[in-house]
Write a structure and sequence with these properties.
By secondary structure, this protein is an all-alpha fold. It contains 21 helices and 2 strands. The protein is globular.
Amino acid sequence: MAFRPQGGMVRGPPMMHGGPPPGHMSHMMQGPHQGVPSQHPMHSGYPGMQGMQQVPPSQSMGSPVQVDDSVVGLVTDLIGPDTREEAMNRLSKKRDSVPDLAPLLWNSFGTISVLIHEIVRIYPMLHAGALDGKTSNRACNALALLQCTASHQDTRQDFLAAHIPLFLYPLLATTSKERPYEYLRLTSLGVIGALVKTDKSDVVEFLLSTEIIPYCLRIMETGTELSRTVATFILQKILQDPKGLAYICATLDRFRHVSFILSKMVQQLAKNPSVRLMKHVVKCFVRLSENERAAMALQSNLPVQLRDGTFNKHLEVGCQCACLVNCSCLWLILASLGVGVHLCFIFYLMAELVAVLDKLIVAGVVVIYHVLLMIKILGGSSNSTSLAPAVAERSACSPTNAPCNPIDF
């Protein structure tokens, strides 16, 4: 089975498969606010309560969350069409400074439905090619708030259970290289990246069941460097999960598709190097080589650029920091495939040693050099009664005379 959505169509959100119409998207949300809007604190307590506002926890939360009234006010403004755009903009900037923003968004009546509506409303513009920068920025702010709920431990399970990532797939399926579309793809990838960053198997299972890999591979092949980096990171995280590795290596078509895109990226990186992107590509190859059948296939299909030292000049520059990971992974690939095992192992150990002792080695060489120099100078002074012989000896070291011992300098 190859990576291709059924019928060649882009897999859409639940409402495209027999779900409720866009006007009733609130019924798709799985949260405690369902069916009891009149009793929710956002309607009964605000703005009468002063100081801190408490919001009832969801089923997965352990205790009520507390947020400042100003943040609660911004969440309330999301409901109003006239105040929504400004509220999304300000909340997206506050999402890192308000730890409990995600539970507040999820448990506030109608908020998630509003954010999804901001995504769905731009679907016609995607197909018509009429998306402008302002509309794209507004949708990106809504995506940033969805990313907040996707990354929070108290709302992540509900986020997946509501199948909200499916609303992002039409954005990932766009191919236009214009900035508004690129920003949408990148922000949508950020939401998926926030999910896989948790290293949870249920997240990988959901993404595999909804066929996220074809979208990632397409962006890895044609996207900008930043979007390709995020898409490759998502693929890497999927491969790190045993179920993800087994899924990709289950059929020859899946493995060939993934290895072909990764090999193509290696060829592109040989022309336009990017250490950050190269790190994720190499880690994908390393993980594939841990599957027995994939390792046998890679023995004859590993990109030649990984064998002939094409990337050595880029990997050696920062070998003591992040690039050491690339260098080690690169040679571990060759070692795992039986290509110069002993040489790869020795190089790997040397790289690790240099990474740990790099600064000590440099400082030690400098100290030893100066110690030897002082010993030489002091030794020469003790064997002479005056400075004249030493001066005469140094004056002899001129371009017209015979070369001197380098230790004299």
